[in-house]
Amino acid sequence: MEKFYITTPIYYVNDKPHIGTAYTTIIADIFARWHRLLGEDVFFLTGTDEHGGKIEKSARDKNKTPLELVNENSQKYKAVWEKLNISYDKFIRTTDPLHEAAVQKFIKKVWDGGDIYKGEYEGFYCLPDERYVTENELVDGKCPDCGREVQKIKEEAYFFRLSRYKDAIIKIIENGLIIPKKNANEILSRLKGELKDLDITRKSVSWGIKFPFDESHSVYVWFDALLNYLSALDWPDGKLFNEFWPADIHLVGKDIAWFHSVIWPAMLLSAGLEPPKRVMAHGWWTVDGKKMSKSIGNVVDPVEMAEKYGADAFRYFLIREKPTWDDGDFSESALKSRINGELMSDLSNLIARVLTIAEKFSGKIEGNKELEGFIDKNKLAEFFDNCDLYSALNLVFDGIRRINKYVNDKEPWKLKDGELSNVLYNALEAIRITAIFLKPFMPSTAEKIEEKLNVKYQTIPDADFKEFTSRVHRGENLFNRLV
Ligand code: MSP
To answer: What would the mean pLDDT of 346-358 be, rounded to a whole number?
Structure first.
């Protein structure tokens, strides 16, 4: 059976989930569900990143121990993923002893290969991003990524020979590691400059995994975090590792593509392991035209959105509103108009109209398959293969609009007997197939459609025009107009 391993980044637990983290996770969930529908053996991993100076500081500010903070907050992530219908197979926490042991084992391997040496780090550090910043990179003395204050550090540290892997990494990226191309090009052009070795331990941070060769140091939080993708598979000896490595897709926001496509493959090569097959970098959300931030008070709470509008409508909006790779703007008014315009008018009304007539029709439902191919299955698969969820979802909704047009043109309310049977057959089969293609994006809506049609759980091989023999039940509307 074909295997498919997809991961989200593991999230910092100094904060609760917001629209950005929800977006990354929803995209991963859509891929996982699509590959399950194809009949593949899927392993979908998410989790929380629980070490490092940022968590240590956040716990101190809240008068808690780091462990109390991470225990509380990792639960919040799990609760939100449940609300958003996220079908992960494993939730990893970096404070899990099995993960900590795997990190130490990995470091020993890299050490034995001669890729770690002791030196001194002198430079800057951005605590919110947990990343090192060189003097040249500073913009007005601040972090080039997030614009926040950096700390000056000078301390003894152990380094990973990242520079040794520069040529190999360039080759891997040129061979298509990163999707989309624009992010690949950005990273390739950064790689034209000098690639410095990476500081992988901190003496001044105590909330971290002990560095096995010198316990006065803790492991740099990113070096620790990236290894979750292996430790979750019980590397080195686990069955899961043998089955699922290398990962098919590491899903990330564009801000952390560098860590996943440069540092991570270099670490893997150093340990004699295969790099991931693909790193997919998505764009960012602003909110009402502004960068989301606690101080502006515009942080979108995904739970509030799911409770107010339903998880499926929120999921739909995030995928529909902007191309996956681009940046886009979130606003509740845009969300409402998509619900009223597309989910209500195009989808919900169509099903209500067709099922109202079909419920009353007592004859045999059969017809000529004239709507066959209303959604091009191969094209849809191609969009998924290219990680273009935006186009995939649009293709499904174009199909829904085709069914609407068909029903409007045929006017089944004026028809009888054979002619009516034919129109109902085509519309019902097309709706049944639509439910299959909606499953990755809007799992509970798809399930409701199947219930209305009275068909059993369906997968991709069922997405062809067949016989329609079940008795349908119109029931309640899927979506109602919002004011
Ligand atoms: N802990 C690291 C990842 C380690 S993975 C080995 C981290 N965590 S994070 O909590 O900051 O969340 C990261 C994810 O959320 C990234 O994929 C990031 O791009 C995404 N987003 C955070 N804010 C975002 C938006 N405003 N919009 C879209 N996604 C953004 O980084």
So the answer is: 97
